[in-house]
Amino acid sequence: MGMRVIGSEIDPANSAKASELGVEVTDLESVLADADVVSLNSPLTPETRHLLRAERLARMKRGAWVINTGRGGLIDEAALVDALASGQVGAAALDVFEVEPLRRRARCAGSSRSSWARTTARTPSRPGTGRASWRSRT
């Protein structure tokens, strides 16, 4: 696809597989600082809950995109709303939310008075699946 792919992985076996596939494996902070698109494809564990929170969103490259096909709890949704509203995050594509089904009055549900609604044009809501990863095919 003509792009440099960088990633962060805590499991050495996964790091080796990622390297075999041409991914430059580095630390999470470097990924956030360098990536134009950050794609989260992780399980939700105590260590990954709110992996992207306000401090990390602030350290991302300004205008970078966030894609989450992992679990809803990986992102602090209130912090993401603020980052979208400020332009720190350029767009977000979310396949999952922290609480599903999304409550009608949730800040990220699209209320006409919310920051989320003002950024909806930059935030596609589209069904997808993370089931096509190399791990699920092996």
Structural notes for this entry:
The protein has 138 residues and is of the alpha/beta class. It has one domain: Rossmann fold, CATH 3.40.50. The protein has 6 helices and 5 strands. The strands form 2 sheets. The protein has a 3-stranded parallel beta sheet with strand order 3-4-5. The longest helix is centred in the middle third of the chain and has 10 residues.
Write the layout of secondary structure elements.
Elements: E1 6-7, H1 12-20, E2 24-25, H2 28-34, E3 37-40, H3 54-59, E4 64-68, H4 77-86, E5 89-94, H5 115-118, H6 134-137
Strand content: 5-15%
Task: Tell me the number of strands.
Answer: 5
Major β-sheet profile: 3 strands, parallel
Q: Any idea how many domains?
A: 1
**What is the fourth-level CATH superfamily?**
NAD(P)-binding Rossmann-like Domain
Q: From the 3D coordinates, which CATH architecture would you assign?
A: 3-Layer(aba) Sandwich
Structural class call reads alpha/beta
Order of helices and strands: EHEHEHEHEHH
Low-confidence stretches: 111-138
CATH class identity:
Alpha Beta
Using only CA atoms, what is the Rg? 15 Å
End-to-end distance: 23 Å
* Rounded mean pLDDT score: 79
Strand order, biggest sheet? Answer: 3-4-5
CATH topology: Rossmann fold
Defining key terms:
single chain, 138 residues, alpha/beta, Rossmann fold, three-stranded parallel sheet, two-stranded parallel ribbon, 29% helix, disordered C terminus
Structure, briefly:
The protein has six helices and five strands, in the order βαβαβαβαβαα.
